[in-house]
Amino acid sequence: MQHLLDFVVFLYFYLHAVTAQGDAPVVNTKFGQIRGKQVSLRLNNPYLRDANAYLGIPYAAPPTGSLRFREPRPTVRWNGIMNATSYGPSCPQSVEITENTSPWRRKILSRRAPFMESISEDCLYLNIFSPMKEVNRGDVNEEDIPRPVMVFIHDGNYVEGTGSFYDGSVLASLGDVIVVTINYRLGVLGFLSSGDDIAPGNYGLQDQIFALEWINSNIAEFGGNPYLVTVFGSGTGAACAQLLAMSNLTVGLIHRVIAQSGTATAPWVFAKEPITNFGMLTDNFQCDRETSGERVECLRHVAWEELIRMQHSSSRFYPAFGPVIDGTVISDDPWTALTNEPRRRRQSPYDNNGYPTLDGIPLLLGLVSSEAFPLIANNTDRHGRLHRSKYSHLLEEFVESMYGENTQASQQVSMAIDFEYTDWASGKNNPYSLRDSLTEAMTDRLYGLPIIQTAQLMSDDRKLVYLYSYGHRLKNGDSPKWTGATHGEELPFVFGAPLVNGLGIFQYNFSKSDALVSLAVIIYWTNFAKTGNPNIPVQQNPTDIHSMYQLKFRFENLGQWPRYTMDDQEFVHIGSSPKIRDFYRSHKLAFWTEYVAAIEEANRMTTTLTTTRLSTEGIITTTTAGTTSKIPVTTAAKIGVTYVLPSLPPGIEYNITRRDKKEKKDYATELSTVIAIGCGLLFLNLVGLATVVYFKDAGTAAAAAAKAAEAGGTSTVV
Hints:
Mean pLDDT: 83
CATH superfamily of the largest domain: Alpha/Beta hydrolase fold, catalytic domain
CATH topology of the largest domain: Rossmann fold
Largest sheet: 12 strands, mixed
Number of domains: 2
Distance between the termini: 105 Å
Strand content: 5-15%
Number of helices: 20
Strand order of the largest sheet: 1-4-5-7-9-8-10-11-12-13-14-15
């Protein structure tokens, strides 16, 4: 009986490892007072301090009625104390499950369901997580130094997701930062564009900017530093983070960017044919009127459930409703913004008012190993096989989405991809190899190439750029065991879910190895938020919290995360066995920038979209596996100075020159060895050949002598 009682007590604490333990301090904002709740993290990890959570804070007026398809408006001031102890409603979205929905996708949707019990057009809310001060840690004597702020923008292809999926309490506690998650309008409600001033689009991006303005005005009351704000996100959230950093409307609001699995130059960032989609929507709801104003006004009276039901995209590779270049929020194509000569000549990290420009915002970016898995998941069978017919259909759809439909160029590109990525040793029609090769090709083109190009364009002597690849996957995650780390797989580790046996939507059976990777990621991410450098101020050294997992902490001996430069192109591979590597998949990326680009040029394609252009303003020589190729990308100046970041205390600076490690490796010894072995093998071959020729000649002479003897003649063999 006692054992049963002990088990019940254990189970209770396990299931309530992250629970409210009381009220958080009342905070005064410009719109009224807010009371949050305390979150206990020590029940599952004694080395974490508890946190305060302020949930469901309105940062803008409800975008309903006449405010639908308009920029956000300020919320109204309230009287008394608002209870901010539960999440606000999620923005309207359709989470459709069909008979073709993959088991992987079904698992994810089931985890999300408890956090989407309320969906409403009144959804512009944010959530704030802050570490608590604790007497036993000496925090009562600590000066009230404002903490860095990390604002997370969720993924979801602009059509799904919500801030309530992501509990920021562990990240705030361990990293000693303020974490903010936000909701923003999605799909047709967030990105409908009529192509004119009536409904210019980008309402979801304007929501994000409005949230940043609210944070700038109020976060100090929560202990945050409004002048040290990092915007980070995954997928489309990462693309939004970089789009916001490029916008003229966010000057002074963003000081760091972390782009996980996305960048503003990716081919899937912008809506495809937004005006056509606007016309189709008005036709579907009998809103075809003479003017745009009348059409939009008609759509304002359609129930949001009906609008969401009609917003499906015709392609898995482009959103039907997403960001557009409107001239206000997004003034120019991101590729142009990154490569225009006036900006590159100026290279000033600050504007005339002292605010950081795009060139002065440190950037940390990267991707996981199998980003494109969700794009093919529904096409594999239960054994993980992708058969040739479905492979061919997916490949055709993928290529035509970027290079045009039914063109000679698209056909040639498809053939080139098939040849380049096929694992010939496994057989051309091996369904497992077809699955892996198509995932690899899509990952390279949709994620790897734009991320590397962005890193190269941003990495000159006045920019702090850090690149990573992520290869650690959950052993008991939602994706099949045959995949690598899939899109979004780093998120549980960023938010610290393995440290408390589950958090928010990340309820998995985590391992000790998972916990150590999470510790390393949180240190890197929060260091970057504090200083723009993932290596300082906290070192990757084992502490008491590491010791509880009883495994070797492999990040300890990794060394400093090198800054990404044009010369060295180094990056950190994050996983259970971390490594410092260089020249990320340079051969495969050269395939796209050289071979595929040559096919485009040869066929004089006329349907190239600005978001899929490849840079040819310079060349970068890349070397891998003994081969050398040149990737056309805009080049940058060689690093040679030390840059002091003003947000740091006096006396602390970054050494952003390439750190002294091994010299460029001299391959003379290896080459000499290879030549010597080659010469030796050649000599042996020559000796063998001479021996064969000698015995062949001797045999011929002997045969001739025997024939002569039979004829009665004589013959002498020398």
